[in-house]
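Researcher: We're teaching a course module on how sequence relates to structure. For the next exercise, students receive a sequence and then see the predicted structure as tokens, so they can try to spot secondary structure elements on their own. Here is the exercise chain.
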Amino acid sequence: MEILTLEKVSKQNEKCRIDKYLAEQITDLTRSHIQKLIEEEEVFVNGKAVKSNYKLRESDEITVHLPVPKVLAAKAEEIPLDIVYEDDSLLVVNKPQGMVVHPAYGNFEGTLVNALMGHCRESLSQINGIIRPGIVHRIDKDTSGLLLIAKDNETHLSLAQQIKDHSVNRRYMAVTIGVVKEEEGTVNAPIGRDPKNRKKMAIVYQNSKEAITHYRVMERFEGYTLIECKLETGRTHQIRVHMASLNKPILGDPVYGPKNNKRFPHLIGQLLHAYQIGFIHPKTGEYMEFSKEPPELFQQVLEKLRNITK
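Model: And here is the predicted structure for the students to work with:
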């Protein structure tokens, strides 16, 4: 069992229902999952189990007991994979938008890891444990694109070190709301949990990590811009947070962008695609680089923007 202790409740969150508050603070759990934990008396305020309708008071101390997933490691599932490259040591896969990378509490099926287990069986690294076999790095559920997958621990450690050393070439394509005027630029601003909303990341200067994003304009449209982003670091939601900080949020982003977009009202998830990845192969020492065009929906939006701009 994992025991999660939250910061003391602030004055501004007084009288908030505990289930609503926890759903905002713990990003991996839905409100229904929180309520289930409360019913099972796994949520405590000042050492005592409470009900879902408990109203918070300033300085309340909350602890949550999270059940550790049973040793039901990720389950193998026959889910099609878009494999860009594969050998005995690693894979490069193109993750579709909408697919979660690895299982988590309340979401154990239909993930990329489940698909990898079905494809590779036992041939995946175990560095990240039974829930994330083979996973060297991640991208968000609604971000599409290329990911490195390690088949053995030696390969995993080498690729992870390359990412840590900022030597892996990771480039993304994104459509921003608003026209980016400069041809290129860099955002160097640390990222951590948003102190006002634990489901979001933000540029903060305490309890944060260095984050650097380089961007350049690829194409401009009427009210939108297609940009390329190159990551030096790989923080959670990094490109989304950094571009939003420039008042150029990613089109379709439900967290950092506007709630309504009249021109593209049916978009679900941000138009952000990890289109290129380059690295040194851990076994051969050869530099390898792979690219993948963005998914069909992304390209349809680009075509529509080009037609509007003409």
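Model: If you want an answer key for the exercise: The chain has a mean pLDDT of 91. The radius of gyration is 21 Å.
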